[in-house]
Design a protein that fits this description.
- This protein is an alpha+beta fold and about 210 residues long.
- Helix content is about 15%, strand content about 40%.
- It has helices at about 115-125, 180-185, 195-210, and strands at about 30-40, 45-55, 60-65, 70-75, 85-95, 100-105, 105-110, 130-140, 145-150, 150-160, 175-180.
- Strands 4, 5, 6, 7, 8, 10 and 11 form a seven-stranded mixed β-sheet that branches.
- Helix 2 (about 180-185) packs across helix 3 (about 195-210).
- It starts with about 30 loop residues before the first strand and ends with a helix.
- The relative contact order is 0.16.
């Protein structure tokens, strides 16, 4: 039997040097606007064909819809049930969607009109309701890939009924629905309007977290 070796076994030294820091990704450059041409002028929005030059020199054309912006009104009535307040909603046929939708009241700003003034005006016109307390929930771009429209969601509280004066092309059914019921409809995929899903989800979470 061969004698056992008495030489010490070499153990690989551990690498204690710090791991290299992750590289911060480069921020994409901003395209340069070369020209902008009005392609369509409408009553509600205009369409511009913009020629852009990317940082690498590549040029391309984007069609962009320009809009004055919209306001969304989340009107809450908690007089009967503070724990599960009623939400003022609308049901109307949307030609572009090809179906009836349940939505929060909303409307377009007039040129130069402050957003809050537009929200108060639109709530009265579409529903007849007036609110004493107003606050901003969120401001966001509806679809920034081609639409330069800001949408601003307002929370309207301490509301009182009135007479609606909708425009001739607005056939609107006013609905009062408890918050819990409309949230169940959202969870079940029965609400298909984006601003309504966003606004009510934010409001419901803020209530559950005690921020409202």
């Amino acid at each position: 039997m061969a004698p056992r070796s008495t030489k010490p076994t070499k153990v690989a030294a551990k690498n204690t040097s710090p791991a290299p820091a992750a590289k911060t990704p480069k921020r994409a450059g901003t395209a340069k606007l070369i020209s902008s041409k009005l392609s369509y002028k409408g009553k509600v929005f205009n369409v511009f064909s913009d020629t852009l030059e990317e940082p690498d020199g590549h040029r391309h054309v984007k069609d962009v819809i320009r809009h004055n912006g919209s306001v969304v009104m989340l009107a809450v009535d908690d007089r009967t049930s503070p724990a599960d307040p009623d939400i003022i909603l609308e049901r109307q046929y949307r030609h572009a969607a090809g179906q009836y939708l349940i939505e929060l009241p909303a409307g377009s700003r007039n040129p130069g009109e402050p957003p809050l003034a537009a929200a108060k005006r639109e709530l009265i016109e579409e529903t007849g309701y007036r609110a004493k307390k107003w606050s901003v929930l969120l401001r966001y771009f509806a679809s920034p890939g081609f639409l330069g429209e800001w949408m601003q969601i307002y929370l309207a509280r301490d509301i009182r009924e009135g007479i609606a004066t909708p425009e001739l092309d607005e056939q609107i059914e006013i609905i009062r629905m408890p918050l819990s019921e409309i949230m169940q409809m959202i969870d079940a995929g029965k609400i298909h309007d984006g601003k309504t899903i966003i606004g009510l989800s934010l409001y419901d979470r803020a209530r559950r977290e005690g921020r409202l």
